[in-house]
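call fold(seq) -> C-alpha cells
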Amino acid sequence: MALRLASLFTGGKDSTYATRLALERGDDVMVLVTMIPRREDSWMFHSANIHLAGLVARAIGIEHLPVPTCGERDRELEDLRGALLGLDLDGVVSGVIASRYQRDRIDRLCRELNLHHITPLWGRDRSELVEEMIYRGMSIMVSEVAALGLDESWLGRILDTKALEELRGLQGRYGVDPCGEGGEMETLVLDAPWFLSRIEVVRARREWNGLSGSLVIEEARLLGKGGRELRKI
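ret:
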C-alpha cells in the first residue's frame, strides 16, 4: 500500500535521491518540506544555499513547503512538528545515511505523530551511494567544503567519476567521507533524468577562509529541458 509522505528536503543530493527512491518504491511524496534555519550552525538542518530548495522542488515537480526554524537544538524539532501536524500524511522520508543523532530524533518525532520514518539511504556504503547517484545521471554541484584536501577549486564542481575517484583518494589520505557525512561538503542538485526541468546557476561567488568555503549562489534560473527559461530567482 502506497504511503503518503512528506520529504525532508534541502535540494542536496541525499534528500533528492531519497525522495526519488521513495517514489520508486511506490509511495506518494506529496510535499517537500524544507526547514530554513535562522542560524548557520543548526544542529539538525542544512543551511547552505537553502533558498534554492524551492527551485529544485519546482524542477522535480512536487509541492514545496518552506518552514522557518530557530536553529536552536531544543526547538528545531518542535518547528518541524508544527509543520507536519498540518499535513495529511502516513510518514516522512529523509536522506539520513549515518547520523544516529538525526535519525533517532526524527524517529522519535514520527512515533509521537504516528508516522512512518522512511530512510532509503540508511546504512548504505557512502562511496557506492555517490557512484550510484552519478551513474543514474544526477547533476550534483558542490556548494560548500570543509575538509583537508577539499580546496577552493571544489566549489561549483560537478560530481562525476573523476571527482569520485579523487574523493576516494582523499578518504584514504585524510579520512574524507565521499558522501560528506562528516560535514566535509554540501551539495545542490541541478538536474536528474526524472526532473521536469533543470537549474542553471547564473551568478555565484566563492567565499573562502583558507580552510573551508562556500559557493554563494546569487542568481539561478529554471530551464525547460529544451533550454527555455521558466523561472529566475
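The CA atoms of residues 91 and 116 lie 4 Å apart.
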